[in-house]
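Key result, reporting period 2: structure in, sequence out.
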């Protein structure tokens, strides 16, 4: 199962003080963790991290290219689906 410390470090990688390459890698890792949590039906692990994840994703999405914006939106979509919040699909 996912280690609390490992996930804490990953979410910390999204923090604005980190270099862009670390932030983007952390976003990809968060996406993978969320995908795993969704598959294993262990979504409660994510709850304490939701504020930091969403804040970090929004910050990154507004600072970088459209490719990074797309990555952030995909990650935000899976984070919201794992946390039980439904996303509107068009």
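The corresponding designed sequence is given below.
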């Amino acid at each position: 199962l996912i280690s609390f410390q490992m996930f804490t470090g990953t979410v910390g990688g999204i923090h604005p003080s980190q270099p862009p390459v670390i932030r983007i890698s952390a976003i990809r890792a968060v996406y993978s963790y969320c995908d795993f949590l969704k598959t294993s039906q262990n979504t409660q692990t994510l709850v304490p991290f939701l504020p930091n994840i969403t804040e970090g994703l929004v910050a990154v999405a507004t600072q970088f290219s459209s490719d990074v914006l797309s990555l952030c939106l995909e990650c935000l979509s899976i984070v919201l689906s794992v946390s039980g919040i439904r996303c509107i699909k068009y």
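The helical segments are 4-12, 20-40, 50-61, 66-82. Residues 86-90 have pLDDT under 50 and may be disordered. This case is discussed further under Risks and Mitigation.
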